[in-house]
Amino acid sequence: MEFIDEDLQRYAEEHTSPESELLHKVSRQTHLNVLKPRMLSGHLQGRLLSMFSHMIQPKQVLEIGTYTGYSALCLAEGLQEDGTLHTIDINEELESVVRGYIAEAGLSESIKYYIGPALDIIPTIEATFDLVFIDADKINNARYYDLVIDRVRSGGYIITDNVLWSGKVLEKYRKKLDEDTAALLAFNQKVHDDPRVENILLPVRDGLLVARKK
Question: pTM for the whole thing?
Fold first, then answer.
């Protein structure tokens, strides 16, 4: 997942606005208590998501894949005063922890947290989205994209995480073409070829594919 020199990564983080005390707590507790802590967005990517949110000033945000809530809290920083962030995760074991962080941030009224399969939940949410963040099971990225693209306003954004997949999108960084990698390769090409969007793939952390709907 680390694509640049460790010292350069540290330098970048040292010259990036710090995360809040709550976000630091979420990060620390995730690394101490939760499996696969690398799934957390973390400081650098979290500040980038916050920056995107502040630039877009969304009223309606959809996040697919809550995990421990770090990215949701970052994305909520740029919400309009009466805005709503809808975040979906299938792991009910983390629900009480995530709801605790949301409450501690004072965002219980602004963040709607759903537990269950995103493919079933998304159609039930009545909203037109200004910003969508896809960070769930990679095999379903294309299905999530197809579900939301017509519900994103013109000028709205879809951001997808982990699109470089620890470098395995390149043949030289993988031993074999597994199912997830094949799905990511197809998804990245699908977005790139979609005439409805403009896109840029940013080699930040594990790769962020940013698509702006025309």
Answer: 0.95
